Every structure is written in structure tokens, then in C-alpha cells.
Amino acid sequence: MITSWHFKALEDLNRNIAHIAKESPQNAILVLEALTALADSLVDMPYKYPKEPVYNQENVRFVTKWSF
Question: Domain limits of the chain?
Fold first, then answer.
């Protein structure tokens, strides 16, 4: 199994990380690492998180952390 990001999700992630980096570059790195680690954890346990309700497909999952 591979984990892939929707284009909109990557745009949002990049925008949020850039916003955090303005105040704290080191926190931006920590947030980016934590969020990508969550996504990468789906490789080992693909059904760990609920289905994304908009897509309602078995292979599309979502997870939130902080306000992301």
C-alpha cells in the first residue's frame, strides 16, 4: 500500500507550514514531521482512521491533529 496526498491537502499543508514557519521555523518542522508521520502510519494500518465522509470510499481516510 502507498499513501498519497490529494493536491488540495498538499496545498493546505504547505500554506499552514509556511504560516507557522514565519513565527517559529523549528515548530514548523515539528508539525510537518508529525503530520506526515500520521499519514505514513496508514501504510501499516490502513483502516486505522475513519473514511473521509466527502469521498465515502474505503481507500480514502482522514485524520486530524491540532487544527489540521
Answer: 1-68
